[in-house]
Write a structure and sequence with these properties.
Radius of gyration of chain B: 26 Å
Largest sheet of chain B: 7 strands, mixed
Structural class of chain A: alpha+beta
Helix content of chain A: 25-40%
Distance between the termini of chain A: 17 Å
Helix content of chain B: 40-55%
Order of helices and strands of chain A: HEHEEHEEEHEHHHEEE
Structural class of chain B: alpha/beta
Number of helices of chain B: 16
Oligomer: heterodimer
Number of helices of chain A: 7
Strand order of the largest sheet of chain B: 9-8-11-10-12-13-14
Distance between the termini of chain B: 25 Å
CATH class of the largest domain in chain B: Alpha Beta
Largest interface: A-B, 31 and 23 residues
Shape of chain A: globular
Largest sheet of chain A: 6 strands, antiparallel
CATH topology of the largest domain in chain B: Rossmann fold
Number of strands of chain B: 20
Number of strands of chain A: 10
CATH superfamily of the largest domain in chain B: Succinyl-CoA synthetase domains
Strand content of chain B: 15-25%
Strand content of chain A: 25-35%
Chain lengths: 222, 451
Amino acid sequence: MSSQTNFMLEPDAVKLLESHAIDYPKNSFVTAKEGIAVATQTIGFPLVMKIVSPDIIHKSDAGGVVTNVTSLAEAEAAYDRITESVKSHDPNADIRGLLLCEQAEKGEEIIIGTVIDDVFGHAIMFGLGGIFVEVLEDVTFRICPVDKKEALQMIREIRGYEILKGTRGKPELDIEGLAELISKVSELVVKNDSIREIDLNPVRIYEDKVSVLDARIILRPQ
Amino acid sequence: MKEIERVLNPKSIAVVGASDNPDKWGYGIMERITSDGFAGSVYPVNARSREVFGLDAFSSLADIPDEVDMVNISIPGKFVAEVVKQAVDRGVKSVVINTNGYREVGRGDLETELLEIIKDSDTRIIGPNVQGIMNVQNKLSLNLGTKLFDQGPVGIIAQSGSVSAYIGEKMGDDGIGISTMFNLGNQIDLCESDFIEYLAGDEQTKVIAIYLEGPRDKDLFKETLIRNALKKPIVMFKPGSTEQGTEAAASHTGSIAGNDRIFSAACQQYGVLRCDDLLGYVDSIKAFALCPLPEGNRTVVMSTSGGVGSIVIDEVYKNGLEMARLPTAARQEIETLTGVKVPENGLLDLAIDTGIWQRVIETLCKNYSGCFDSILIVVADGVNNVETMAGYAKNLSSKPILAVYMSYGDQYRENAISCLKHEGIAYYGSPERAVRSLKNLLWYRDKQVNT
């Protein structure tokens, strides 16, 4: 994947999602190490720190993500670690700063994404994360927009549905919330024609809510 | 779609390139148009011969004194544009161009030239590089190599002359028949969506069978499917299901997606039945052509054989259908009639006594029709004309009745098949095929109800 790919910086992606009533964990974009102290006061600990650079699309591969940061001292050390690691990965990388996010609790992981199809336009994909998407490709597609009813149909048709429904003593997860999220994302791309592809990966689903933990929004070539 | 209706019902046709030489395409067209019973006037146009197929021939389109509604062109490419010009000048309604050598060989410019010629006129083009069209209702076949198909409720739109011929012939073999067939060719003017729209509104057509490699006008195609798929069943065969996602995709989603997966999703969403094997495709077309839609998933299985009946039951559950639960009174009545206890799984194993079959069918259809949504009739022993019971049930019930006929190679087979065809029963050679076809009917019905 070339570094020319035109994608939205994560803080911008977060703003776009939030403007469509799609929640992101508490977050703050810091452009210098000095900003960390203030940011952590509102976010709290533990938190996740992620590189923000137009040259780094695969953040983890560039050492651009640190999780489970539990104190200000750790956060400041992580700041240096991330920027150094990214520079050694790509000496010319334009580093804009770091996005600090509240660290989410563990939960079932989901991927929601969109692409543009040559014939039908924006299409949305949904599936369970991890091996379900990587190995089994247990995903389903629809043409955008999809309403909540159609989104529920998507959720029911993947093989991993039983996991969301709660199995072997585990409770049912927030399927209604998930359907709403799928529907909102599908409407978002229809309204924003500059978007080429979206990966919301991972999204975590709990009993009472659904959280988008990372957003990659790729724009159409200018 | 009055326009397509006019295209399909010409009172007169000029065949440019008509020939007595069997090696020429124009021979094939003349052969069809003069031997299938087309009632309109036919004007052969040939630069050198004064007579073709025993008819007076004209040296050019301009020389024909009478009105010409349709022109079929199969002459070499360099002469085509001039003929189309003459057609436009004469106010011809449609031009079917068999001639190839256009976009498919990188000469899109020649197509642009043709479009320029018909611009602002009432003349419409089908083709170029097209195998032809067929309107069985008025016995018009411009389709090289295939006789006029039997008349029936299947409308065909195909991007392959071989596939359209296969479907047409298969529908004939099964006693179903077709209404209209459109081959697509390069679709520079009239395209798949125009034909879908037409067939969706055509009263003779009950199901639209499409074979498509890729739509010509993408936006129009999407709109057309959304507008029509739930009005009339569309059964789609589109190759490409082995296509992989694009490796170079920038997103994870893009690497999984692939156009084919999304095509399937769109079909699923809009209510178009996409089939990925030819057998299932033809089976489904047949089911839609012959059966009403089931109103639910409860089915009654009547069988000459307990063994095959059990296989059918497995298929029923595998396909998301279920065995109808008959009330105790119904079971008792049937037990009294047959002398056999209805087993837990609900299978009505009636062996080969047609007297018993009749009484059971009457009981169910007259007194308990609220308890089931479809009937599967399984004939696995060819004796005693049990296959006639499918037609018997059909006369007493407005629900879909599908049959499995599994008696091979015996002396009864030919008669039985001809009886099933005559009664208009959707019959299949195996339980899997019959039940899958029933499932497809139900899928479509659910789509109609839930959308």
